[in-house]
Design goal:
Layout: E1 4-6, H1 12-15, E2 22-26, E3 30-36, E4 45-50, E5 53-60, E6 76-84, E7 94-98, E8 101-107
Antiparallel strand pairs: 1-6, 2-3, 3-8, 4-5, 5-6, 7-8
Amino acid sequence: MFIVKQYSPMTEARRQCLTPPVDIYETAQEVVVLADMPGVSKEHIYMNVINNQLTISGAFQTDWEGKKLVRELPNCSYYRTFRLSNIIDVENIQAKMTDGVLTVKLPKKQPEQPYKVPIEIE
């Protein structure tokens, strides 16, 4: 069951951004999103969830002014949005950035267990 859907309405500001490529896989307990965002430091990455919509953004910035001979890699931003299923436990989402790859773990909600109502006998 695929429970994360890409959602990327384009605005003028977002057209200036790069869309990070992602790998998504699902286990019985969670959905994992791996987003390639090379050059982004933890100070320049941002992620939030509003109305079951996960937004990932980040900025790659260099301070090489006056030090470089050739510049082919401009300062740029990354932006990607996904619509989450209502079975995702958004309060327990975890994220970790390692070697330019953002790993986002989206845990699934535990199914509700039936509650046995005690019956008083007279």
